[in-house]
């Protein structure tokens, strides 16, 4: 009998403990993502918390947008220089970064085919003189029927063919930098110069003395800095705020104290996968330390925009979103989400389709209302 009673007591205790454990596990945890959106305050509570209610206002907001990008050169100012014929590099005195002038000799290339091309041109000129005299002789004989038309036509064809050969060889010599009008048997040369087509500086050198280069090889990369510009990345939401002609102040990470003035001259309207695009800015004044590819920061001064603004302390941030408190007719305050814009001093630009200049908002100590909401949720 005693053993039976003891068994019943133990079973009851185990059941009771299990029920308490289950009850404890079922206690709802506080989930701030489901926090109440409305808070009520008495007149005394509003006064002690320093709550002030007022209306938002429209004001002209001016500010800068911080962007990042790099110094860039347009295609027409970048030259990848090759040579029309293959040859061996015999000399050059260039280093990357060195300034060059248009027409300046960058290197000398030599090859047997350069000699052959000059020889062919001079030979063609000599042959042309012979064919020209033969043509004149046959024309005279043909006029008196002393020679046949066929012989006369052949003489003319030989002269024309040689003239065509001279013209084509002359153009080839010009590509090599050799003036055919000044070429004589006494100044045939085995090496020809590689000339700079622009004023600028050398950005890259791909040659070495004695190296053989083919027409497809890039010997030098040159940049004309007269039209260097600043390319900055802009996100879609900021693009409507930027217009052509806006002032830009750029600086590098190496020397953030030195600012470079520029102006927006082109806005790209095509967005990439990140919903960003580029704006292009001309520097007001070229600086030698600016080179293509250099990373830059830029502040763009945006135009004054008439926007809805409130004091900075009227906006609270919670769960990565921004809110204001709207006063209802019964004296309660409802937390309403807004999109923050430019912060100009202590004035915060806001955007919301539910808020106008007639909407009563908490303009001061809005954070105390957020704390009351959170405390009420914890107590509940």
From TrEMBL:
<dbReference type="GO" id="GO:0060003">
    <property type="term" value="P:copper ion export"/>
</dbReference>
<protein>
    <submittedName>
        <fullName>Cobalt-zinc-cadmium efflux system membrane fusion protein</fullName>
    </submittedName>
</protein>
<dbReference type="InterPro" id="IPR006143">
    <property type="entry name" value="RND_pump_MFP"/>
</dbReference>
<dbReference type="GO" id="GO:0015679">
    <property type="term" value="P:plasma membrane copper ion transport"/>
</dbReference>
<dbReference type="GO" id="GO:0022857">
    <property type="term" value="F:transmembrane transporter activity"/>
</dbReference>
<comment type="similarity">
    <text>Belongs to the membrane fusion protein (MFP) (TC 8.A.1) family.</text>
</comment>
<dbReference type="InterPro" id="IPR051909">
    <property type="entry name" value="MFP_Cation_Efflux"/>
</dbReference>
<dbReference type="GO" id="GO:0016020">
    <property type="term" value="C:membrane"/>
</dbReference>
<keyword id="KW-0813">Transport</keyword>
<dbReference type="GO" id="GO:0030313">
    <property type="term" value="C:cell envelope"/>
</dbReference>
């Amino acid at each position: 009998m005693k053993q039976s009673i003891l068994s019943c007591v133990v079973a009851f205790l185990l059941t009771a403990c299990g029920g308490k454990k289950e009850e404890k596990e079922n206690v709802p945890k506080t989930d701030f993502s489901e926090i109440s959106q409305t808070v009520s305050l008495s007149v005394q509570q509003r006064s002690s918390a320093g709550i002030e209610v007022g209306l938002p206002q429209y004001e002209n907001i001016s500010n800068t947008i911080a962007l990042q990008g790099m110094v860039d050169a347009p295609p027409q100012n970048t030259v990848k220089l090759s040579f029309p014929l293959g040859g061996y590099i015999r000399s050059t005195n260039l280093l990357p970064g060195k300034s060059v002038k248009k027409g300046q000799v960058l290197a000398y290339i030599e090859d047997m085919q350069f000699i052959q091309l000059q020889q062919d041109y001079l030979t063609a000129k000599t042959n042309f003189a012979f064919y020209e005299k033969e043509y004149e002789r046959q024309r005279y004989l043909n006029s008196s029927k002393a020679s046949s038309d066929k012989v006369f036509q052949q003489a003319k064809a030989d002269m024309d063919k040689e003239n065509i050969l001279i013209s084509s060889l002359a153009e080839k010599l010009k590509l090599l930098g050799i003036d055919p009008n000044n070429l004589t048997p006494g100044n045939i040369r085995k090496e020809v110069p590689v000339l700079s087509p622009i004023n600028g500086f050398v950005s890259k050198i791909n040659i070495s003395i004695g190296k053989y280069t083919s027409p497809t090889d890039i010997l030098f990369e040159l940049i004309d800095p007269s039209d260097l510009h600043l390319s900055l990345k802009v996100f879609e939401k900021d693009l409507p705020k930027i217009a052509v002609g806006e002032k830009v102040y750029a600086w590098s990470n190496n020397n953030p104290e030195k600012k470079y003035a520029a102006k927006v001259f082109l806005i790209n309207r095509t967005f990439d996968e990140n919903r960003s695009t580029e704006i292009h800015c001309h520097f007001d004044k070229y600086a030698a330390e600016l080179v293509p590819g250099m990373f830059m920061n830029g502040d763009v001064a945006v135009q004054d925009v008439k926007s809805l603004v409130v004091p900075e302390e009227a906006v609270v941030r919670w769960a990565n979103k921004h809110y204001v408190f709207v006063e209802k007719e019964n004296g309660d305050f409802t937390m309403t989400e807004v999109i923050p814009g430019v912060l100009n001093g202590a004035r915060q630009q806001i955007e919301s389709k539910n808020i106008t200049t007639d909407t009563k908002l908490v303009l001061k100590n809005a954070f105390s209302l957020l704390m009351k909401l959170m405390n009420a949720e914890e107590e509940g």
